[in-house]
Design a protein that fits this description.
This protein is an alpha+beta fold. The protein has 5 helices and 8 strands, in the order E-E-H-H-E-E-H-E-H-E-H-E-E. It has helices at about 25-40, 50-55, 80-90, 120-130, 150-155; strands at about 5-10, 15-20, 60-65, 70-80, 100-110, 135-145, 160-165, 175-180. It is globular.
Length: about 190
């Protein structure tokens, strides 16, 4: 497996690794695809070819989380909104084109690993890296049914913009959220450093 690890953060308590990854070979794409099949309903899964194409878009910020045995237990995948705009606009007519926004394509952690602190740590890392790269905000279409939208609003000051009915034909409503990465304007991101 050829993960190009740029930075490694450990949850010292349980030794989970959280890594930024830039390059994805076919074995890693396959591993991520299998992992996502465990996390998402079938109608929300990508074909391996689509996943590969998405992950190989330049300037994305991608994070993988592994348990102490090395098993992939979490993933957070984000791309410049400008790279995803045309496809997303089809499902969200009010979406505005912006090249200074990072779009979270997906975030998932296996249910048995959700109490390991991976959600908070991986999102903190994502926001810090996005801030360092000069992104002004992070945006996403967040699931409502599993409380992700509510969690992002309370933990990170995500601003609710609108509800999208039957997002991406998934059969579920999603909220479109934006998180301002200016720590002067969004006090919940006080930890961001240039």
């Amino acid at each position: 497996m050829s993960e190009n690890i740029i930075e490694n953060k450990l949850n010292e308590k349980e030794q989970y690794s959280i890594n930024f990854v830039e390059k994805f070979d076919d074995l890693l794409i396959e591993e991520i695809h299998k992992f996502r099949a465990e996390c998402f309903p079938e109608n929300m899964q990508m074909e391996p070819e689509d996943l590969k194409e998405t992950l190989q878009i330049e300037n994305g910020i991608h994070i993988l989380m592994r348990d102490p045995s090395g098993k992939l237990v979490g993933g957070l995948f984000a791309l410049n909104l400008a790279d995803e705009y045309e496809e997303l606009k089809e499902y969200d007519k009010d979406l505005q084109y912006e090249d200074s926004s990072l779009y979270v394509e997906s975030a998932s952690i296996l249910s048995e690993n959700r109490n390991a602190g991976l959600y908070r740590k991986s999102h903190d890392m994502l926001f810090q890296k996005a801030y360092e790269k000069g992104f002004k905000k992070v945006c996403m279409h967040a699931r409502i049914s599993n409380n992700v939208s509510d969690r992002l609003q309370s933990m990170y000051g995500a601003e609710f913009k609108r509800k999208i009915k039957n997002w991406f034909d998934f059969g579920e409503d999603f909220d479109y959220l934006e998180i301002n990465l200016d720590p002067e304007k969004n006090k919940k991101l006080y930890f961001l450093k240039k």
